[in-house]
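Appendix B. Extra example for self-study. Work through it before the problem class; the solution is given directly after the inputs so you can check yourself.
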Amino acid sequence: MQRFDPAGIEAKWQAAWEAGQVFAARRDPAKPKYYVLEMFPYPSGRIHMGHVRNYTMGDVVARYKAAQGFSVLHPMGWDAFGMPAENAAMERGGHPRDWTYGNIADMRAQMKPLGLSIDWTREFATCDPEYYGQQQAMFIDMLEAGLVYRKNAVVNWDPVDMTVLANEQVIDGKGWRSGAEVERRELTQWFFRISDYSEELLEALDGLHNWPEKVRLMQRNWIGKSRGLQVAFSTVGAPDGFDRLEVYTTRPDTLMGASFAAISPDHPLARHLERHNPAVAEFVAECRRIGTSEEALEKAEKRGLDTGIRVRHPFDNAWELPVYIANFILMDYGTGAIFGCPAHDQRDLDFARKYDLPHPDVFVAVEGGQPVEAEAFVPPKTEPVRYIRGFAGDEVQTGEAAVDAAIAFCEANGVGQGVTNYRLRDWGISRQRYWGCPIPVVHCDTCGVVPEKKENLPIELPYDVSFDQPGNPLDRHPTWRACACPACGQPARRETDTMDTFVDSSWYYARFTSPHADTPTDPAEADYWMNVDQYIGGIEHAILHLLYSRFFARAMHRTGHLPAKAIEPFDALFTQGMVTHEIYYQDVSVAQVGNQAMPAGTTRRFYFFPEQVEQAQTGGFVEKGSNLPVQVIPAQKMSKSKKNVVDPVNIIRDFGADTARWFILSDSPPERDVEWTAAGAEAAFKHLTRVWRLASELAEGDAPAGPGDAALLKAMHRAIHEVTEAIDGFAFNKAIAKLYELTNTLSKADAGAEAKRQVMRTLAQLMTPMVPHLAEEIWAMLGGEGLVTQATWPKADPAMLVEDEVVLPIQINGKRRSEISVPRDMGTAEVEKLVLADDTVVRVLAGSAPKKLIVVPGRIVNVVI
RNA sequence: GUCCGUGUGGCGGAAUGGUAGACGCAUCGGCUUUAGGUGCCGACGCCGCAAGGCGUGUGGGUUCGAAUCCCAUCACGGACACCA
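Solution. Structure tokens for the complete assembly:
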């Protein structure tokens, strides 16, 4: 007999699919459509197991929907702009464009052997001028629609490299290359008015029923709608023009517990003081060294500087509070100024302790008033508390009601007004980098900032740039900046900032519907294919990418590039877990590092790739060859620096794509992390080999009927039902478990060859979404018609799914002690009679009657004694 | 620090208010094979000779009944706006 030969089988069937153009998406008004999309990859150069997992899941859905009669769109492209290409150019020479397109070619070649049902004719990269030219056109439309504007914003500035740093490039407040202390610097930048859509983006979340609840919750918190009070404090001893300080608070009920006010280092008052007071200048400069990320600000030690300025409490002119500049106040949230209530806010309390400020209580717990000691008393907003310094005397209220009352009271007394505030900030898209989509505007001395004419698009990146010095090569280019003003025709200069790569990925899903149209989208195509019916990707994109895409779809609708139904572009979202692997290492003692002697006991850690180690007889792992033991760290996300990576190319070479697909789907639920293990991959291969062998044997057998035909067919219908249900519910691991069961049942069945062949063909159909090559091979072996890829999904016969007898477990006080077998539809009274006659029940009751007898028909019985 | 998740045998997991551990891996026993890191058959949560008891991170609660719902707590992971 022949051997199972995945390499031969896979090449053969991929060629057959290609020849039949089986995966070309066709607009067919007679059919329902289904658009499956996986988050497109960044072309780093190699595919990794995370890609294999993501695209295999999408492929299961795409193939399953096609079998159910949908006209399926399943495209692939490349998120191709970004910093790694520039870093590669700086480190190894070469050009970002060559590096990127080279990587795309490599990755496409690595991906194709997976046998994904992708329509490759729609492929594009975001760095194709054809793509980013349309993006520039939309930028101009958005500018004209008032969705784009310029304002000053802070960036991380590396004073040695003289370049802007991404947050990722700031490590412990220092530039990653230069090691210099990072400064904050203000630049004029381009922004999208996403905050205009705060309320709409928030409300529309309620309609996204097929998104994970956790993602909707994260977006809700990110948008951060809050109702609060904006209140003006009058100042004492402030410079001219600063006689009032506007403060925003979400807890106006604690206004009577104020003990200080604090402003952001970027607040106009701080800016003013900075110019006139060296102590303030020094402190503010120190604050700016923390960087721009919210995370860094929150984690930094809370510090403040007393400005000497005082503000009067709005309810008591004689009550003065000191004004601090504090490093933890964000200029972008509220008014950039707060009042501190240490008694009821932990951060304020820490601050008050540090600077020896009072902390008067406003409320106490209803039962047993608790004084503020080590911790601030912060009850949830819904818990009632007794106000001891409220606006209306002693009263018991929840925080929520007290906030409303406080706002009403302040408004009535002319002290401030209730305002709704959002945490969501406008989207800054300017990047001072080369490898991105040029922002299509022109700076003219006469006309100011003018959008480029659409007929001049795309504004293409120049190829002749150098990366031998830091900063944006577009700024240094000898000729690229020079252009004519689109308004007056006089000599003018191009904008040299490029767009955030998140812009590129905010509309690629729409472009896939008409990838080569000479407008951003083709209305007929977009109308047919949108929305994405199922979007699949990593949870790390839960907020930014998905929120930006939701905004961008609305902007595209407003500028006429998408139909109204597409303003929520992703009908269903699935967030997959990561692929992890154990880490192998040895700690080796070293006497010296470089030419420096190290103290005794100093060790260096060396990591090993999985293929460099093997399991020893003792159960531990050893390095191949040397047989020296290696230590093992439990599985973590695959990462090159820890060498816990497995190259999909090697797995496909050794076992075939079907094995890689089968294993990565089988071992964990899709939303959770999956650990790649060599043993698991081998087991998957063995199972597929077994299925193939079973099919080969059946292909040759004769066809007498057998006594077990009926039972086998019943098992088949049950499997059809269960596998279909599991795939619908994105439970691919369960679908595979059911396929194992059917395989086992089939191989042991006491049935005739004809029935077995029928079940094997159905098994092949059910396996098609996961292991399409093996399924085609079996289908062909057993005389299936055409390609199994194009066969209609099998249907379970409902009559075959019902069991006549059911086993009812009998619990005694909730613990299972016995069971009875009864006809499926037996009445409760009769079941009770049988239960009370059960040996175990009789013995335990010992003559007395049960306190209660609960019968859940068809499920369970509980006897309470 | 803030927001959001996850936690079940030796391991991945199944069961989402009703028999905890489906299915797979590992392990152990048996059979086949010239041989096998092959194939097939069987056992397999923990304690216990057994009867039986215990058991879903930890502590409490709701319920006839809790892995599942609620409260608290611990551990691990993701996001934090210029990584993609």
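Self-check: Chain A has 26 helices and 38 strands. If your reasoning did not lead you there, revisit section 3.
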